[in-house]
């Protein structure tokens, strides 16, 4: 259950409790699961419980994939229930740390924006885009919210367009322009009695909602399973019948890339790859009461890994390393075909 599911369709408290129980069963995925649980706690109105989950992760003693993201989410949540001073201190620390991941920047900048700290929000968005996008030919998808957020804040401040605003316009794909979406006067149209103005505003809001849902959907891709070479060798040795499914490692890599390209050509969005390991696969088979030799279990295993936040987006960003682990860029490796 995704946190953006309408409240009338989900019991956020129950969903948070379920995710917390799942995190106890899969400690290797605790970070992704507890972050989703915290989101449900926030949506249920229990912000202190959400803060407790963020603190639990930060104090766990295990190495987190993105500790600054956890801190950013904690700061945003704290500010919402009256802990402004602590939230500001955390935000200042994140800005000083200058993360290379855009997500913490987006969280803290939007938190400042939502509390009418527009100048500080603008400075934060600007610091991020300069750090992450200077001399970058094609902005990665994950950085788009930084460009859009900066554009939005500058419109509210009445600032003229600059080169970063032009870049935001260039990556914006919706039919309504960013200038329209971010027009400060739009709020007045919601109080209009003119049906045409109201209809136009509804269209704009639908466009924004579509972009928001598209962004939310990306962490939950349609996933294809990839076995690293050592794991595949161990898998086929332990379960020889799977050798028909995986006749060789090279064939496995070629089949994986072909499957992803076929899905992409058919119009399937938000594709990803999940790396499998033999111990987790055996544990999954046991939980399903099925033998690991059962090939119908493989796609279910991939889907479960993706739901636990283990998927990596495909295709890789331009210049990024290939998903297969060869060490070469995707364009030089499996992306070259």
Describe the protein's architecture and organization.
60% of the residues lie in helices and 4% in strands. The protein has 16 helices and three strands. The protein is globular. The two termini are 37 Å apart.
Spatial gap, N to C terminus: 37 Å
Oligomeric description of these chains: single chain
Strand fraction band?
A: under 5%
Mean pLDDT: 86
Integer-rounded radius of gyration: 22 Å
Write down the secondary-structure element order: HHHHHHHHHHHHEHHEHHE
What strand order characterises the main sheet? 1-2-3
Biggest pleated sheet: 3 strands, mixed
Number of helices: 16
Give me some keywords for this one.
single chain; 337 residues; mainly alpha; 60% helix
Summarize the structure.
This protein has 337 residues and is mostly helical. 60% of the residues lie in helices and 4% in strands.
Topology:
Layout: H1 12-25, H2 30-44, H3 47-58, H4 67-80, H5 84-97, H6 102-114, H7 118-133, H8 144-157, H9 163-171, H10 178-181, H11 186-189, H12 195-217, E1 222-226, H13 229-238, H14 249-265, E2 271-275, H15 278-288, H16 297-307, E3 312-313
Parallel strand pairs: 1-2
Antiparallel strand pairs: 2-3
Helix pairs in contact: 1-2, 2-3, 3-4, 4-5, 4-6, 6-7, 6-8, 7-8, 8-9
């Amino acid at each position: 259950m995704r946190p953006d599911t309408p409240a009338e369709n989900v019991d956020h408290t129950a969903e948070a409790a379920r995710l917390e129980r799942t995190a106890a069963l899969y400690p290797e995925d605790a970070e992704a699961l507890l972050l989703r649980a915290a989101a449900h706690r926030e949506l249920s109105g229990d912000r202190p419980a959400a803060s407790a989950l963020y603190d639990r992760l930060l104090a766990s003693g295990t190495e987190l994939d993105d500790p600054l993201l956890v801190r950013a989410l904690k700061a945003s949540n704290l500010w919402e229930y009256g802990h402004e001073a602590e939230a500001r201190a955390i935000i200042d620390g994140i800005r000083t740390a200058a993360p290379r991941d855009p997500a913490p920047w987006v969280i803290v900048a939007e938190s400042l924006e939502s509390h009418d700290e527009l100048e500080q929000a603008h400075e934060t968005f600007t610091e991020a885009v300069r750090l992450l996008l200077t001399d970058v030919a094609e902005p990665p998808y994950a950085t788009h919210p930084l460009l859009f957020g900066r554009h939005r804040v500058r419109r509210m401040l009445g600032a003229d367009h600059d080169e970063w605003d032009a870049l935001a316009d260039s990556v914006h794909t919706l039919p309504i322009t960013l200038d329209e979406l971010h027009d400060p006067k739009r709020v007045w149209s919601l109080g209009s009695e003119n049906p045409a103005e109201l209809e136009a505003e509804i269209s704009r809001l639908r466009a924004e909602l579509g972009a928001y849902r598209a962004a939310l959907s990306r962490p939950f891709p349609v996933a294809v399973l990839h076995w690293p070479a050592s794991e595949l060798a161990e898998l086929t040795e332990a379960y020889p019948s799977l050798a028909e499914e995986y006749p060789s490692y090279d064939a496995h890599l070629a089949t994986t890339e072909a499957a992803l390209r076929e899905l992409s050509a058919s119009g399937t969005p938000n594709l990803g790859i999940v790396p499998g390991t033999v111990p987790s696969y055996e544990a999954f088979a046991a939980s399903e009461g099925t033998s690991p030799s059962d090939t119908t279990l493989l796609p279910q295993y991939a889907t479960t890994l993706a739901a636990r936040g283990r998927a990596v987006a495909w295709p890789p960003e331009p210049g990024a390393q290939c998903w297969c682990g060869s060490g070469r860029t995707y364009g030089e490796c499996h992306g070259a075909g």
